[in-house]
Amino acid sequence: MEYPTILIENAVNEISKLPGIGKKSALRVVLKLLKEKPEFTDSLAEAVQKLRNETKYCRICHMINDTEDCTCITPRRDTSVICVVEDTPDIMAIQHTAQYNGLFHVIGGLISPIDGIGPDDLNIQSLIDRIQNAEYNVKEIILALSTNMEGDTTAFYLAKKLKPLNVKISTIARGIPIGGELEFADEITLGRSIVKRISYDLNGD
């Protein structure tokens, strides 16, 4: 595709790197931005820069937050249960089901050797520290990971790692389709999967 100017081409190339946006959609965005008032594009640029430079991650649960101390522990939440998820959008999806009232732990990805992501690249040790911390009195870990190869590999690794810690290890029920990503599941299916969670079987029986 040929573009009228190199500036438009550069903008299209950058915007099309975002997930779900192809070159045609990126071009429409660029042309729309050109029609907007300068104040709008300035405000957009400032918001994106602040998002990138000022976003923090909770030092306990690793959820995206405005500060490093989020409200992941409140009197309203059951501190004996921790739901392990890949990233913050999964927390939002589960919260929207209104079927879970425990804590969360964001591991920040999934084990994927082909992508160079190993256990040491994930927030696993901090999860172990939380379980071993008597303040939490953790009794159950729910593995709420996507039901694809990477998710299953990560769940298996976590289950083996956590087994000596004397906590119940469960996983969401298979209402989530095989190969599906958690954040895209509908609220009813996801909610039922949380409520009807089952014990994680390390033997695969």
Description:
The protein is 40% helix and 13% strand. It has 205 residues and is an alpha/beta fold. It folds into 2 domains: 6-54, RecR Domain 1 (Helicase, Ruva Protein, domain 3, Orthogonal Bundle), CATH 1.10.8.420; 64-199, Dna Topoisomerase Vi A Subunit, Chain: A, domain 2, CATH 3.40.1360.10. Helix 1 packs across helix 2 (23-35). The mean pLDDT is 85.
List keywords for this structure.
single chain, 13% strand, 7 helices, Helicase, Ruva Protein, domain 3, elongated, 205 residues, Dna Topoisomerase Vi A Subunit, Chain: A, domain 2, alpha/beta
The largest beta-sheet arranges its strands as 4-3-5-6-7
Which architecture of the largest domain would the CATH scheme give at its second level? 3-Layer(aba) Sandwich
Which blocks of ≥5 consecutive residues have pLDDT under 50?
none
Strand content: 5-15%
Number of domains: 2
Tell me roughly what share of residues is in helical segments. 25-40%
- Tally the helices: what do you get? 7
Distance between the termini: 53 Å
Predict the CATH topology of the largest domain.
Dna Topoisomerase Vi A Subunit, Chain: A, domain 2
The residue-averaged pLDDT reads 85
Order of helices and strands: HHHEEEHEHEHEHE
Give the strand tally. Answer: 7
In short:
With 205 residues, this protein is an alpha/beta fold.
